[in-house]
Amino acid sequence: MPNMTLRDIANALDLSVSTVSKALRDSYEIGYETKKRVMNYARANHYLPNRMAKSLKEGKSGSIGVVVCSIDNSFVSRMLDGIDGACTAAGYDIIIMQSKESLAQEKSCLKQLEARGVEGILISPAAETINLDHIVGLRAIGMPTVLFDRISERFDSYQVGVDNREGAFLATQHLIANGYMRIAMLNIGPDIHFASLRGKGYQDALRANHIPYREEYVRLCNPSSRDTLKDCVSTNIRSLLELPTPPEALFTTTDQLSTHSLSVMHQLGYQIPQDIALIGFSNTELADILTPPLSTVYQPAFEIGRKAAEKLIALIVGKEEPEEYETVMLPVQLDIRESSRTRIEPKR
Amino acid sequence: MPNMTLRDIANALDLSVSTVSKALRDSYEIGYETKKRVMNYARANHYLPNRMAKSLKEGKSGSIGVVVCSIDNSFVSRMLDGIDGACTAAGYDIIIMQSKESLAQEKSCLKQLEARGVEGILISPAAETINLDHIVGLRAIGMPTVLFDRISERFDSYQVGVDNREGAFLATQHLIANGYMRIAMLNIGPDIHFASLRGKGYQDALRANHIPYREEYVRLCNPSSRDTLKDCVSTNIRSLLELPTPPEALFTTTDQLSTHSLSVMHQLGYQIPQDIALIGFSNTELADILTPPLSTVYQPAFEIGRKAAEKLIALIVGKEEPEEYETVMLPVQLDIRESSRTRIEPKR
DNA sequence: CTGTTAGCGCATTCAC
DNA sequence: GTGAATGCGCTAACAG
């Protein structure tokens, strides 16, 4: 037995469809008695308004689209949790799509969401996405859009994320404060915007402390494929540690880099932080259970998602002036744990 | 400039709406020239069919609903990835909702999905959900439904998951084979079906090896709140290790139990597996980077999601006989790592 | 080959 | 107070 419609109720109660419609929406035009009858009948028969029809009629789908690189990523899923919270509270449901870091897929996701009639889009661009024209284009067709997490100052619109440069600066600064001078960085890239900001923060901190920047202490891995990423980390860690003057500390700029690095160092028998200190970026769940517990730059993932969704909803509802674009930078926070403990001069 | 409609194209090209509609769908009734004109015009003007209208017309939304306990869980998100893969491939998009382990919210999710007009539902029931009547009820209204991950033999329908009893049996058996006799289990529950199956597997393995079952070696923690879970693990681990005859090995039946246990043991200064061996359930990503690498019963999360989605889609498309319900049990696999290494008699 | 008509379920004028 | 009529954008049956 498929769902009942307004007409079914109307027929059963010997009323017209429009009367029933109004009664259910508690319109002032309908008499108390009639309302009562309709409401009761509807409840008793589990009437559910057909949202497709309602959507079509009102030109609103009641849903918003979310594009992320991958669902299967703890940082992303925490942001999604935040998004879901805000959207559910506001009565929107979310359609999540994955770009898998591919620009082509990202475009395809956007197209689908548009066709689906979402009322707004939240997007964290793919790593491959250098040019944001297709996202800017969304505005042209009147689609409210908020960028989150992977934000860009080249995108003049609503954005929610953290200050990546600042986070990296703090991390590096912390290592320096703890007595480390020779600090290496393992980053992803090139051409990934937030990653280069983190790189910049690292350099700025060195400069601020009059520590020379050493080319050979900075390594990049491309995140395109997991296997190669792991290999790349392994190669670079080995190479760093075998340098004539190896670094005393390492700043790894993403979760995967951090965990793989730790794993390689364990394999090679290095002690952390005695042999080399370590600080990562964004990891929270894992940080505590690693050995040693990993110091990290904490990013408020849930909050990023929530704030971005709230912003988007405000845009949709139209309470916001479309003119004043703004970038919301949530504060990062240093979670200091054992992996970056104050340096002790190695015994000879 | 909002989206253009079939009528816009029709007017522009001086054709009727239905001709345009047919042309775009490459109907045999339309002449080559006309098709060409329409197609070109549509592409040039970025025509996107309105899916809400299409859905209403066809009575199909092209979307399926997914209910999970929480997005923010690596195991769940890997299953979602599998679901997304199958659905995207089949042209469905997914609407994900979270029950947060609450029965009331689970029911609310189901209602919303129904109202939304999803064509089918994939659900992994909340921990609170003992009685599955509301899920069985979905069938009554003709909603194709597939249970995944948290399956139940009390539910006579389509289900995809793993054999939890078997997995626990294998894990325990493995510990025994490696020389451990006094084996404790830290489980969640009571009243969580898959958890009690894991408990059963543990007991079965002991019995099969003529090892007496010891009440004091079996501990339960309730997963309702994270904080209390962590505390509960801590309390139980301490208490286990302080027993007159402490266990030589521990089987932790969920990811959170495993990681918290590891963390507590580290804090207390226990060596793994020298002081106590450890084997967990379902973790994959983490297992390798923990210290020591954690042996686990591997569950093919992605596959579970994929298979469940494929099943559901087959049901929706109607290729399946609705009579022959079946439970698909995917094989678990033991991933042996260092935490459960062969026992070495401790030196005195 | 192309156009006309009808209707999916709902909300909203506008009459009565 | 209530109901008839209209249309959201699309597809499909049926005419031409």
What is this entry, summarized?
Chains A, B: GO terms for molecular function: DNA-binding transcription factor activity; transcription cis-regulatory region binding. The first copy, chain A, is an alpha/beta fold and 348 residues long. Helix content of chain A is 45%, strand content 16%.
Secondary-structure blueprint:
The structure is a homodimer of 348-residue chains.
Chain A: H1 6-13, H2 17-24, H3 32-44, H4 51-58, E1 63-68, H5 74-90, E2 93-98, H6 103-116, E3 121-123, H7 133-140, E4 145-148, E5 158-162, H8 164-177, E6 183-188, H9 193-208, E7 218-221, H10 226-241, E8 249-252, H11 255-267, E9 277-281, H12 285-289, E10 295-298, H13 301-317, E11 327-330, E12 333-335
Parallel strand pairs in A: 1-2, 1-3, 3-4, 4-5, 5-11, 6-7, 6-8, 8-9, 9-10
Antiparallel strand pairs in A: 10-12
Helix pairs in contact in A: 1-2, 5-13, 8-9, 10-11
The first copy, chain A, binds a DNA duplex (16 and 16 nucleotides) through helix 2 and helix 4.
| Greatest interface (CB-CB under 8 A), with counts per chain | A-B, 50 and 50 residues
Query: Numbering strands along the chain, what is their spatial order in the largest sheet of chain A?
Result: 2-1-3-4-5-11
Rg value of chain A:
26 Å
Q: What's the number of helices of chain A?
A: 13
Average pLDDT reading of chain A: 90
Distance between the termini of chain A: 82 Å
What is the subunit organization of this protein? homodimer
The figure for the number of domains of chain A is 2
The geometry of chain A reads as elongated
Low-confidence stretches of chain A: none
CATH top level label of the largest domain in chain A: Alpha Beta
Topology order of chain A in helix (H) and strand (E) letters: HHHHEHEHEHEEHEHEHEHEHEHEE
Q: Give the helix proportion of chain A (percent range).
A: 40-55%
